[in-house]
Design brief:
CATH class: Mainly Beta
Helix content: 25-40%
Structural class: alpha+beta
Radius of gyration: 18 Å
Largest sheet: 7 strands, antiparallel
Number of domains: 1
Strand order of the largest sheet: 2-1-5-6-7-4-3
Shape: globular
Length: 164
């Protein structure tokens, strides 16, 4: 049921704006990355992410199941969510195609992005860590075809979080 209080469409109430999407994605979170296994089942894994050429991207082992799946079927779905209680839930699902990137310069851009998001500012002293992170890896860049968002904080519901 999509009707909220007063007969308004709740789906439209909780949709994020482009600016809200950008801010949410810039936050330090873990993404659920989903590819399609050979038997048609979903392979879902938690991944750190960064940005390559303005798009969401991941680094992963070159022989990983994710890469094998994407080589066969480029369909890729990514979900990033936040919140512990209903009135706090926020998230984004991105549906599209995964591009496998093995170009060292493009991989480096993503490697630095991931490093900075989860570890702090990159300096040349950090080069060996990023090099190690990218060793025997590929980058998967998501070309988004559809975006679904939700932000329950927009509903103005009373908190359900238990008191301490």
């Amino acid at each position: 049921m999509t009707q909220a209080f007063g007969g308004q469409n709740q789906r439209n109430q909780i949709r994020m704006t482009e600016a809200e999407i950008d801010t949410f994605l810039a936050g330090r979170r873990t993404a659920s990355m989903c590819t399609v296994n050979p038997d048609g089942s979903i392979h879902a894994v938690a991944m750190w992410y960064g940005f390559l050429e303005g798009a969401l991207a991941f680094e992963t082992k070159s022989k990983s199941q994710k890469v094998r799946n994407l080589e066969r079927n480029p369909n890729l779905t990514v979900m990033i969510e936040d919140g512990d209680y209903y009135e706090e839930l926020r998230g984004i699902t991105l549906v599209g195609k995964g591009e496998i990137v093995d170009d060292p310069d493009r991989m480096w851009e993503l490697g630095v992005s991931v490093f900075e998001r989860y570890n702090g500012a990159y300096t040349e002293e950090m080069r060996p860590f990023v090099e190690l992170m990218l060793r025997k890896r590929y980058v998967v860049k998501l070309a988004v075809e559809r975006t679904v968002t939700w932000d329950h904080t927009k509903l103005g519901l009373p908190p359900t979080r238990p008191s301490a």
